Target: Oxidation resistance protein 1
Amino acid sequence: MLTLTFPLVPQLAVGLPPHWTSCTFSLVYSTARDGFSLSTLYRKVRYVQGGQLLLIRDTLGGVFGAVMSERMHCSPHFYGTGESCVFHWKPDFQVRFRCVY
Model:
C-alpha cells in the first residue's frame, strides 16, 4: 500500500507549479477507508476549495496521478487551467517533464 508520506511530497513537488510547493495536503478520499466508488470520490471532494492532487496506485505497484487546478467534478466539458497535468511517479523519481503553467 502506498502511503503519502512527507518524504514523498517534496519529491512530487519538484514538478509542480511553484505555488503548490507551499501547500498543505490532506487526505480526503482513500479506497482503503472509503471504498472504490467514483460517486463517493466526487461526493468527498465536493466541498474542497482550490486545486487537488490525485494519486493512484495500480495493481502492479505503479503510481500515477493528476494535478488539478480546480475541484474535481463530473462534467461533459473540459475544465481547469494550464496548471493541470498528469504524471507518473517512480521511487527513483527524476523530473523529466514539468507541468506547463
Summary: The chain has a mean pLDDT of 78. Residues 4 and 26 are 10 Å apart (CA to CA). The helical segments are 8-13, 31-34, 38-45.
